[in-house]
Amino acid sequence: MADQVKTIGVLTSGGDAPGMNAAIRAVVRKALAHGLKVKGIYQGYRGLLNEEIVDMTARDVSDTISKGGTILYTARCSEFRTPEGQNKGAEICRRHGIDGLVVIGGDGSFAGAQQLAARGINTIGVPGTIDLDIACTEYTIGFDTAVNTAMDAIDKVRDTSTSHERCSIIEVMGRNAGYIALWCGIANGAEEVLLPELYDYNEQKLIDNIIDSRKKGKKHFIVINAEGIGHSTSMARRIEAATGMETRATILGYMQRGGSPTCKDRVYASMMGAYAADLLAEGKSNRVVGYRNGEFTDFDIDEALSMQKSISDYMVRVSRAMAI
Ligand code: ADP
Ligand code: F6P
């Protein structure tokens, strides 16, 4: 077990996600309850290397739980990928008296956290990404809000798509993962969901499916396309040419990362932030907080980063069965 910490830092890194503020708030307040001092680090690892570090009190996180984005800002930082950047980061932590650190972000951010832990800073990762693509956990901060935002937007596109008897290709975020697409596929009753994990680039199959469904009386056709496949605009042009059905592409984009977090994101992010502060107070390091089988838990970062996650076959089959 690592040494007891006295002062902890907290930062958000990678893409922002609704609920990150709830996690920051919980880290700050639970750490203060443990008698620890807390420092906020702005702009992720970039802010760490630029020493954008401030003291945080319980009042600094007042009125933040309902806010989207991250009050600590976030960034991507190529310098921190180098051993020199990581040494500098650990040295800056020591200079500011930061002996424990909570990193809220995705797998990339955890790889950075692992390097700081190896350099003697007790570090804990908290999964913050709308993509749900972190293998050790069934929940990541922001997914629930993002998928609800996407679902509402897709409902609206469906209304106009139905009125015009069109085909709509709607592209959702998720980097290389198809979780947002699959959940929307089921929640929005899409006729087709294209997932990066399974896509075989056989567009003819999709075209045949559209032609066939028109013959069976379907007046409109919703395709949810995952960002990892992309090219929705050119796909729409090809589908229109091949099927004769008017086809439009809508790329939902960054709206999916914004907005006030849902109840689930507020509660789970609060639990995970508090859990991370507890781990640091117990002297733990190199851990990632996760949620599995109905429980909040934690994993060694090395182990967490080596895990693989696959899309649920059963969810895919249900989504297809609903589309008849
Ligand atoms: P996410 O955390 O959402 O996966 P990124 O992959 O962009 O987002 O990573 C966020 C930041 O974490 C990067 O800009 C970089 O500073 C740091 N990072 C990513 N990968 C590594 C790595 N292998 N080693 C050290 N730091 C890393
Ligand atoms: O990881 C969250 C995410 O929104 C992905 O879905 C997307 O691929 C990526 O971030 C976009 O990142 P950026 O903000 O750098 O354009």
What does this structure look like?
Helices cover 42% and strands 18% of the residues. The protein is an alpha/beta fold and 324 residues long. It has two domains: 2-142 and 261-306, Rossmann fold (3-Layer(aba) Sandwich); 144-257, Phosphofructokinase domain (Rossmann fold, 3-Layer(aba) Sandwich), CATH 3.40.50.460. The strands form two sheets. The chain has a seven-stranded mixed beta sheet with strand order 3-2-1-4-5-10-11, with helices on both faces. Helix 7 links the parallel strand 7 (192-194) and strand 8. The protein is elongated. The chain starts with 6 loop residues before the first strand and ends with a helix. The relative contact order is 0.18. The model has no long low-confidence stretch (mean pLDDT 96). The protein binds adenosine-5'-diphosphate (ADP) and 6-O-phosphono-beta-D-fructofuranose (F6P). Adenosine-5'-diphosphate is lined by residues 13-15, 45, 76-77, 80-81, 105-109, 111-112, 115, 129.
